[in-house]
Design brief:
By secondary structure, the protein is α/β, with parallel strands linked by helices. It has six helices and 14 strands. Strands 3-10-4-5-6 form a five-stranded parallel sheet. A three-stranded antiparallel sheet has the order 7-8-9, with no helix packed on it. It has a two-stranded parallel ribbon with strand order 1-14. A hairpin with a 1-residue loop joins strand 7 and strand 8. Helix 3 packs across helix 4 and helix 4 runs parallel beside helix 5. The two termini are 33 Å apart.
Length: 268
């Protein structure tokens, strides 16, 4: 939440203050610049420690898979929000005049509202299904609209156009077919733009060295947060469920209680 949540939702340095508070408990060592699977392996951690908790989040951003994604002005919403959160001078951030956001979740709402507040003239959020199917809550959708963001539904992205710089996002109009899948209606819409943000979700990067079992592409856990490995727990966005900070915090609390019981019973 220091890097991935819109600034208007979380006060600056809130996460850092929380980290400092926890560190004051004492006996806690923090190692930075250490990547699981590179500088250290899960097997090493399991051999050195009695219990391991994985709070890895989701480390990869999905591409939309469109021609023109390599044009200048096309960005991942997650990376831009992180840059925005850490910027000392917001006026130095590049912000287009006409922005298209592709996606329907909270990150899409965040980047749409943020860029509008940063001075964009026109911000349009485009989602391939209806408002009821959006990952963002009704409250979030309403919040975006009251902040000047236009939301368009039932449009599937097909390509981005431009010469060097992005100049338009092309969408196919769709409807819900009888079998529940999306069916093209034959129409197209072109949205002029000079900046496009992709906000179609993130994915978990699996642990390569004998990691715990997965479920639906993320780490499988029981009700206590324990994985398929007896000494490994996990929580937050790397496990299945809603990608919400408050639930990640709850996952940590539940796992901590479980780990405490595990250590007591094992005599560690």
């Amino acid at each position: 939440n220091e890097y991935g949540i819109a600034a208007y939702k979380v006060a600056d340095d809130f996460a850092q203050a929380e980290v400092a508070f926890v560190a004051e408990v004492g006996g806690i060592e923090m190692r930075f610049g250490t990547t699981l699977g590179a500088e250290i392996s899960l097997a090493q951690l399991r051999s050195e420690y009695d219990a391991v908790f994985l709070g890895l989040g989701q480390g990869a951003v999905r591409d939309v898979g469109l021609s023109g994604e390599d044009l200048d002005g096309v960005h991942n919403a997650v990376d831009y929000i992180a840059q925005l959160r850490q910027a000392a001078d917001l006026s130095a951030l590049a912000v287009g005049r006409r922005i298209v956001v592709i996606g329907g979740g909270n990150t899409a709402i965040d980047i749409a509202v943020q860029t509008k507040r940063l001075g964009a003239d026109d911000v349009t959020l485009v989602y391939r299904r209806g408002p009821e199917q959006m990952g963002a809550t009704g409250h979030e959708q309403e919040f975006a609209q009251t902040n000047g963001v236009r939301i368009k539904h039932w449009l599937r992205p097909v390509r981005l156009q431009g010469e060097g710089d992005v100049r338009a996002a092309i969408f196919q109009t769709v409807e819900l077919g009888a079998d529940g899948t999306l069916a093209d209606t034959g129409g197209e819409q072109s949205l002029p733009c000079d900046m496009v943000f992709k906000a179609v979700g993130q994915t978990f990067v699996p642990i390569t060295d004998d990691g715990p079992a997965l479920a639906d592409g993320r780490i499988a856990v029981d009700e206590s947060g324990q994985t398929s490995l007896p000494d490994v727990w996990a929580g937050g966005d790397c496990v299945a469920g809603e990608d919400l900070t408050v639930l990640a915090v709850q996952d940590g609390k539940i796992a901590a209680r479980s780990i405490d019981g595990y250590l007591k019973n094992s005599g560690s």
